[in-house]
Amino acid sequence: MEVQPELASAEVKHLQRCINDLVSLLALPAIWSGGDPSQVLHTLLDALMRMLRLDLVCVRLTDPDGEAPVEIVRLAEPQTQRPMPAAHEICEALSQSLKNDSRKWPPALRNLMGEGDVSIVPLPLGLQGELGVIVAAAERTDFPRQTEVLLLSVAANQASIGLQGARLLSQQRQVANELDQRVTQRTAELATASKELKKELAERRLVEERLGQEERELKYSEVRKAAIVDSALDCIVTIDHEGCITEFNPAAERTFGYHRDEVLGRPLANVIIPLSLREKHRQGFARYLAAGEARVLGKRIEMTAVRADGSEFPVELAITRIPLEGPPSFTGYLRDITERKRAEQELRRSEAFLAEAQHLSRIGSFSWRVATDEITWSEQLYRIFQIDRDAQVTFELIGTRIHPEDLSVFLEHIERSRRDRSDVQLEFRLQMPDDTVKYVHVAAHIRSDHGRLEYFGAVQDVTERRASEEALSKARSELSQVARVTSLGVLTASIAHEVNQPLSGIVTNASTCLRMLAADPPNVEGARETVRRTIRDGNRAADVISRLRALYGKKEPTIESVDLNEATREVLALSLSELQRNRVIVQQELVDDLPLVAGDRVQLQQVILNLLRNASDAMSTIDDRPRDLLIRTEPDDDDRVRLSVSDVGIGFEPQATDKLFEAFYTTKDEGMGIGLSVSRSIIERHHGRLWAMPNSGPGVTFSFSVPCKAESLTSDSAHASRTPSVSDAA
Amino acid sequence: MDALPREAHSYVMELSQERRAVERPLVSVVDDDESVRESLPDLLGELGFAARAFSSAEEFLASDCLDQARCLILDIAMPGMSGPDLQRELKLRGQEIPIIFITASTDKSARPRLLEQGAVECLFKPFSDTALLKAINMAFQPK
User: Which chain A residues are within 8 Å of B127, Cβ to Cβ?
Assistant: First the structure.
């Protein structure tokens, strides 16, 4: 072939470059190794652009997973200032112009970016273009030369290999990744399994240990059971399915009087059941074995048993079936309840006694737990209150039966008891649904059982007694006046003296009158005059009586040894019902071992009574607070004894203290015993002192103090201090 | 007083008639108690005596009755000079008037001493008309 030298030299250069390019292309896979497909394509496209002076090269990769194809475009540096189309515009244009089948693509296409046509070379990737396609395009007319086609196909091959490698690598990586994941997962699973296994092992060990312990416990329990059975106070007898004794513990031996060896194997019925009940027992046992019926099984029954000596006695019996496989066997627990029976009977009898006694004496008893307000009543108490036996007793319920006027006092007492835990003595009225009124007396004292406070007490229906008491108290007060008078023997004479004067006039006038009327002719005028005088003397006698009442207070006391505490208690006993009627709450503080005083007991009691009545009167209008009255005795200075009565009444002005006594003193005709003046004069005659002090709170405290009984005080010296005899005084 | 014994009645009547024949004897009453001074002279009049009453021993001593009175009914307890005081005084003056003491006191222990001192009787108030008459009769008996 003939070759021109210049041309030849250009041709050589061209070929040399081509070979260089080939070498470069062949070296590309070394660069690609380990890279991903996009890196492969980028380097390839750059290389092609540079080697072949292309105007455009683009690649489209079909995605093996069917997703959107990857498109990469390279454009030559534009010669003119033409705007650069975007890669996807180019690809779009290519797709429109070209069919999917790259083998049918035309060799030349209209220039997409400018005028004229461009030559294009489509290069399928993969053996059948399954990987995608590379399109190389150039405006130059000599494109593609033969060498260039060679280079492009080599590049396409190289790219296919590189892409395959990259894909493979990526797949490998993916597989490796998956593998890794699976290994990790499996490892985790194994770890979990191993942990569970360990746990299971531990549990199993635990179970084994427990089983061992249970076994030990079972052994221990058997030993213990044997000990219990042997030492039990109850008789424990076991029988087999035929009713024969298989066990007979020491308590049973003692109770029934048999030795264990004597009874083992014998039918239970023949040993401990009385002849009269034996048949019944056999029947019951047979019935149970036949039908599993258990009339006595698991229940506590009382029956009669018989001892070896033939004596019968009551027993309590409980039979249980021994829960074991095989023919049924039973354990019977028997207890001699002779004592209990007797105690029960005695209890029943004593309860009957108590109920009868309560019924007869109209006394009901109760208990009250302070903390919980649980109240229990005896039957009689329900009867007294006329409350249904089944009713739950509460203070509210009780309140519905208490007389409205006494309710506040009652509630006050309850609160006081709750607070002070002191003993209770109280009298109040009940009002029944039919409006009848009952008087009841309550006495209760507190007990502490392990710190649990409980009141126990009795309530007595004193309605009848109250009625007779009222009559009695009337008589008593009359009597006490007489008693006071007679206790002053001298005064008796004095009264007689004063009264005998007008009486004498009456008798004389009456005698004269009779004589005047008996005369012939009767002296009617004279008789009328004597009758007039008789009437006048009668009135005079009455005047004398009232004058003497005033005189009474001026007599010297009869001296004796007086225990003021005792005297006070007597007065309280006499006046308690009256005080309670006036809703006065009395508290006593009578000091023990109070020295005796020398004086007239009745007169001193008169003073105490006065002070109580005054205190009660002073509180008669008090409704906004409890009418508390405190009576107290105590030793005073200078061998004296002091008694004081405090009220919470209306009180008085401090400066009125003296007038108080004075005012009363002027009302001499106050009558026997009433009036502070009389009280003061009585106390003064006892060489004592009576005074009043306003309290720091509401009310007043009246006190008197009298000398203790001195050893030297004899009856002579007492007489010496008396006033002259009545005959002289009259 | 209507239960006056029959004998007493006849005795009183007999006595009255006997006295009526002569002059009525004077009985003096000394008592500080007004009702006694009022009622007793009337009764004495009915019994057939003349009577004069004085409220105190001093008044009696100052009167002209001292020599005329055949009998003295005298209260024991009086303010000022008492009955026994007057008895002593009369004795000192040599006046031998029979004295019947009367008293409202119930103290019987005083009676024996008074009788010992020469009193005819000691009556305790209130006394009946028969008891009084009996005592007056005793007073009029010659010793």
Answer: 504, 507
- Long-range contacts for A573-580 (Cβ within 8 Å, ≥24 apart)? A574/A473, A574/A476, A574/A480, A574/A609, A575/A609, A575/A612, A575/A613, A576/A427, A577/A427, A577/A466, A577/A469, A577/A473, A578/A616, A579/A612, A579/A616, A579/A629, A580/A409, A580/A426, A580/A427, A580/A428
Distances (CA, A) of A497 to A535, A668, B100: 19, 21, 18
- pTM of the entire predicted model: 0.29
Residue appearing with tokens 């590379």: A134
Mean pLDDT, rounded, for A613-639: 88
pLDDT tens profile B52-111: 999 999 999 999 888 889 999 999 888 778 899 999 999 999 888 999 999 888 778 888
Fold of A5-176: Beta-Lactamase (3.30.450)
Tell me the domain boundaries of chain B.
22-140
End-to-end CA distance of chain A: 202
Chain A within 8 Å of B8 (Cβ-Cβ)? no
What is the pLDDT, as a whole number, of residue A420? 84
Q: Is A424 on the interface with B (CB under 8 A)?
A: no
ipTM tops 0.85: no
Q: Do A5-176 and A560-729 show the same overall fold?
A: no
For residue A89, what pLDDT is reported? Answer: 65
Contact between A123 and A155 under an 8 Å Cβ cutoff? The reply is: yes
Which tens digit of pLDDT belongs to each residue from A159-218? 887 777 777 777 777 888 888 888 888 888 888 888 888 888 888 888 888 888 888 887
Q: How many CB atoms lie within 10 A of CB A524?
A: 11
A134 vs A68: which has the higher pLDDT: A134
Say if strands A235-239 and A245-248 run parallel, antiparallel, or are unpaired: antiparallel
Which residues does chain B have within 8 Å of residue A526's beta carbon, measured at their own beta carbons? 42
Pick the CATH number of A343-461 from 3.50.50.60, 3.30.450.20, 3.30.565.10, 3.40.50.300: 3.30.450.20
Which residues make Cβ contacts (< 8 Å) with residue A488, sequence separation at least 6?
Answer: A552, A555, A558
| Cα A360–Cα A362–Cα A365 angle in degrees, nearest 5 | 115
Q: Among A499, A511, A540, select the one facing B128 at the smallest CB separation.
A: A511
Determine the CATH number of domain B22-140: 3.40.50.2300
B113 touches chain A (CB under 8 A): no
What average pLDDT does the segment A628-648 reach?
92
**Residues B39, A533: C-beta atoms closer than 8 Å:** yes
Q: Are A137 and A118 in contact (CB under 8 A)?
A: yes
E strand or H helix at A514: helix A489-518
- What pairs with residue A333 in β-bridges? A236, A318
Q: What does the block give as tokens for A238?
A: 């076991």
Q: Which residues pair with A644 in a beta bridge?
A: A632, A703
A232-336, superfamily in CATH? PAS domain (3.30.450.20)
d(CA A7, CA A87): 38
Nearest to B46 among A496, A515, A533 (CB): A515
According to the CATH classification, is domain A560-729 in 3.30.1490.190? no
DSSP class of B142? -
Which stretches of A57-145 are DSSP H helices?
87-97
Report the pLDDT value the prediction gives residue B49, as an integer from 0 to 100. Answer: 92
Chain A residue numbers with beta carbons less than 8 Å from the beta carbon of B20 are: none
How close A509 gets to chain B, by Cα (Å)?
A: 5
Angle at CA of residue A502, ends A497 and A507, nearest 5°: 110
Residue A126 has pLDDT above 90, yes or no: no
For chains A and B, count residue pairs whose Cβ atoms are closer than 8 Å: 96
H-run or E-run covering A226: helix A146-231
Model confidence pLDDT, tens digit, residues A431-462 = 999 888 998 988 888 888 777 888 988 888 88
Measured between beta carbons, the chain B residues lying within 8 angstroms of A539 are: none
